[in-house]
Design brief:
227 residues, Double Stranded RNA Binding Domain, 8-stranded mixed beta sheet, 2 domains
Length: 227
């Protein structure tokens, strides 16, 4: 494999991981905790933003979190009952940012490489391309005058949008407000649909819950079974 192909293959790995595993969901999860062992303590889930309280969307996510807390040994407080633990939740997704992907084309490039943006043959240099949003981006040329007996190797360039989503969860002792747990699950994906993102972030948050305090781990959520 030529040096040009080696560089391109290495550069493509993160992009393949992002776009090729559409059936799975990966998130980085950070947790800090001083939670006592669950012994049936009661809890109440609330929105960190009061404007979300009572909303149908938040209620759906709160039910998912309640189910997870019940699974690990806590008990949801009955209506009107004072809960031992107060669970505050916030979630969201940003407006996205554009990324550029450059992949080798299968056809012949220009003869002999030529003078690129970084020098002869384009080694370490860049060339301008127009993205689908009409902006100018500079990508590696990778023109090698010694490849294929003097034929250059061009790149196909595409752009796409990625989004960062996040779920924050805090657990306080209701009696005195002492903080017992802080957790953050964050993911980068090409999907900005909260009804898809939040359930996956919740599952990532509760994988290995409550986790080792101060540790950040990468959690991969398997896709639901077919049917």
């Amino acid at each position: 494999m030529s040096m040009s192909k080696t560089i391109l293959a290495a550069a493509a790995l993160p992009l393949l991981a992002l776009g090729g595993c559409a059936s799975s969901f990966s998130a980085n999860v950070s947790r800090f905790q001083q939670l006592p062992a669950p012994q049936g303590q009661t809890f109440h889930v609330q929105a960190d933003d009061p404007r979300l309280s009572g909303g149908l969307e938040f209620s759906q996510y709160a039910n998912l979190i309640s189910a997870q807390l019940t699974r690990v040994g806590y008990r949801q407080a009955a209506e009107g009952e004072r809960a031992d633990l107060t669970v505050s939740v916030a979630y969201g997704v940003d407006k996205g940012r554009e990324r550029i992907r450059s992949t080798p084309s299968t056809g012949f490039g220009r003869w002999g490489g030529g003078w690129g943006w970084g020098g002869w043959g384009g080694w370490g240099g860049y060339r301008p391309v127009i993205t689908r949003h009409g902006r100018i981006a500079y990508v590696p040329g990778f023109y090698d005058p010694f490849m294929w007996g003097g034929w250059g190797w061009d790149n196909d360039v595409t752009s796409y949008t990625v989004y960062t989503s996040q779920l924050n969860m805090k657990i306080d002792r209701s009696a005195d407000g002492k903080r017992l747990f802080e957790g953050k699950a964050q993911a980068i994906s090409r999907n900005n649909d909260l009804p898809y993102l939040v359930p996956n972030l919740v599952e990532a948050m509760f994988t290995g819950f409550p986790g080792n305090s101060g540790e950040t781990v990468k959690i991969t959520v398997a896709p639901p079974p077919k049917g």
